Amino acid sequence: MKEVHITETVALDDVAKQIIIIDQTKLPNERRMLRLSLVEEFYEAIYLLQVRGAPAIGVFAAFAAYLAACSIDTDENDVFFEEFEKHRNYLNSSRPTAVNLSWALGRMEKVAIMHKSDPIPVILDALKQEALLIRQEDEQACRAIGENALTLLKPGYGLLTHCNAGALATSRYGTATSAMYLGHERGYGFHIYCDETRPLLQGARLTAYELAEAGMDVTLECDNMVGALMASGKVDAVLVGCDRVAANGDTANKIGTSVVATVAARYNIPFYVCGPMSTIDPAIATGAEIPIEERNGDEVTSMWYEKRMAPEGIKVFNPAFDVTDHSLITAIITETGIYYPPFGFGRSDS
Ligand code: MRU
Question: Is 158 a pocket residue for ligand 1 (Cβ < 6 Å)?
């Protein structure tokens, strides 16, 4: 049996009151660890994508809320709660699309409110336990997603993924990559194809890196090669992650995902969305309501080039996510099961 490559994506040093992450903006060239202790550093780490991927953002935000609470210097509960709310709102404004951020911060707030009249050290301990639980649940969810997804895959399959929904984006295993890791352990011999994922190259820099490190058979291609790749018959299934799933199944994920889904439909290739239940937002009816982050145009024109590769002053359209229509999704795979259309995550029976 081959070893699964384990990355502790988000770690808490409770003695030093720091969160430890690997700076994902430096991969694959440099494995630089960051130790963060200030709430401004937590905000920046999420905004700059030093930590990224919906579930990892949620886990990180939970630890950030705990450490921000530890830094509040007061014995008075009213003052503590006022400050805690400020920190929570600030962290929540770091990125808009992945619902795991507000979901995790909401869980932390609920726990704090449950202990509203307790001494502050008791509140802090409850916050720490909740953050650790969120991380543990994420790891378990990812494993279960992989087991569920694996039931849909056959040995020798060619699997395409987009962006990084891997171990680096979660507590362990990843979501879209979980079945790849489990299949690899069990000798399935998958052939993995990674879209490079312009403009920030999460596929090339992160997915290709972590899967190749784990010893898998990985091939990298540019995003605009997806039609040629699918036409060649090398892809048996597509597995992608998600940042927010609306009640009707419309799914926001990294920009370009909807293109992959559209081309997959053209070639009758199953398109699977993998994610924990924490990424499903039953409060949102359709994808039209999902807030889409727009990022700096420099990411497109100059960020990865030695010299600028577009005219100075050119207008740039740079949405970080797009919405894949539910009609293009074969199934949504979560830790609780495999959901087929018609999706109805807003309903009480789902
Ligand atoms: O901008 P990013 O890198 O945070 O975008 C990440 C994605 O789109 C992932 O596919 C998604 O968050 C799922 S991660 C398991």
Answer: no
Pair (83, 218) in one structural domain? no
**The length of the chain, given as a count of residues:** 350
Looking at residue 8, its pLDDT comes to 81
Contacts (Cβ under 8 Å, ≥6 apart) of 305: none
- In this structure, the answer to whether residues 16 and 122 fall within a common structural domain is yes
Structural domain harbouring 116: 10-142
Q: pTM for the full model?
A: 0.96
Q: CATH code at 176?
A: 3.40.50.10470
User: What does the alpha-carbon distance between residue 223 and residue 211 come to, in Å, rounded to a whole number?
Assistant: 18
Distance 320 CA to ligand 1 centre (A): 9
Output the pLDDT for position 337: 98
Domain boundary among 142, 166, 189: 142
Q: Which two tokens stand for residue 11?
A: 């770690």
Which residue puts its alpha carbon closest to atom 15 of ligand 1? 165
How confident is the model over 88-125, as pLDDT tens digits?
Answer: 999 999 999 999 999 999 999 999 999 999 999 999 99
* Catalytic-residue membership of 138: no
